[in-house]
Target: Disease resistance R13L4/SHOC-2-like LRR domain-containing protein
Amino acid sequence: MDLETSPIKEAVEEVMRIYKSLPPRPTIEDVKVAMAIIKTVDKEEELKISQNQSFPRISGLDDELFSVLQEARKCFISFHSYQQKKEAQLLLDLDTWFQAFDDIIRRTSELVSTSNGADHHLLLVSSSNSENSENSHVGTKTEKLSIIKVASLIESTAKDGTGVLDLGGKLMDQIEWLPTSLGKLEGITDLNLSENQITALPQTIDRLRFLQKLDIHSNQMTEIPETIGELSNLINLDVHANRLKSLPSSLGNLTNLTSLDLSSNQISELPDTLGNLTRLKRLILETNEIEEIPYTIGSCSSLIELRLDFNRLKALPEAIGKLEKLEVLTLHYNRIKRLPTTMASLSDLREFDVSFNELELVPETLCFATKLVRLNVGRNFADLQSLPRSIGNLEMLEELDISSNQIRILPDSFRFLSKLKVLQAEETPLEVPPRQVIESGPQAVIRFMNDLVAAKEVRRTQVAEENGFCLRICPKFHHRRKEINTGIVPTKA
Model:
């Protein structure tokens, strides 16, 4: 029978058509990744269910309703795990189907072994599907990555020895964790995980010993693993805009760190080990719930920028004066009443913001920070009633905000602020200088203060001269007045 027209050919072609209609075959690496993902999710599910079972009873809730609540939580945990495993399980199921078709192909090849063409054709089909499988994970630049694709990308990055992995804003929203295979990126130096929905880093993060930059800002992280302390080469760590409530003490092991951004979290306490970061130049802690800065901050001797805005601070430690390289210190919107007496040591300070606090006094010692360019003590409201007498020492000052305070008189030394370009004094009841002078700009204020002090000097000189003239013209009268004032009256001879 002619093979070209026989039912054998038709049967073989149908088998090939069915085989070709299948989706791309998972690679061996894909299968390994999927199995690892399912294993990790199962462990996470087991841990969360255990935590749910040990959850403390809610006061005022009867046992039966509490049991129902626990059951609802357990169901949600299981459903969430199912969602996380769905893609990986689908891939494993697909691999199982391909194994079944492999057997079909093998049997078909054996049955038509007398026809080399048919057998060769089947091999081509298998090869074609293998090629499609290799390209199955190549997506567009804007495509959001599934957990399988992330894991595959980690594998390929580890294999290629690439130093940079950028996953910033690229993960599907339902991805809340990263596979433990992240630890395979032992040679990576720059890892960007920002702007995703990650809730935790894998413990294997400690294997990235050459990592210098780690960006995980704008995620849903509630904690940083203790193992992060093993990243001894880390220089830049950005964890802002997460849900952190505390920091691991191992953070102090990152002694090469120069920039640390922990802003926009829920941190209430800083570890004492923060003082170990002696190379740290930039520390951003704004928008948290911090009530106290540890005294060990004084050991961060390289610090140039310290931002503590929008916290619950009532005071700064005296150790702040040890930060002699500090150039920027911002404390906007806290509860600070007094500043440390050691402010005089901040000789390199250029920007200082202590607005929206409860500041009662600007210490004279601050005026030793003669490199100050911007000073904001505005909106301390009824608490702040005067500026330091020696404010004129700040001859480099260009911007000054004293708005919404109770300051009525500017000190005489204000006239020495010759470089002042911006003066904010809204809603401050200044009497000297008068409001119309304030509204004419900072240089008008300086001229007014110069004229005022000059007038005072003239008046003082006039008074002194008048007193001297009186003493010369009326010596006997002056002598008599002195006798009366002292109560000593000479007796007659």
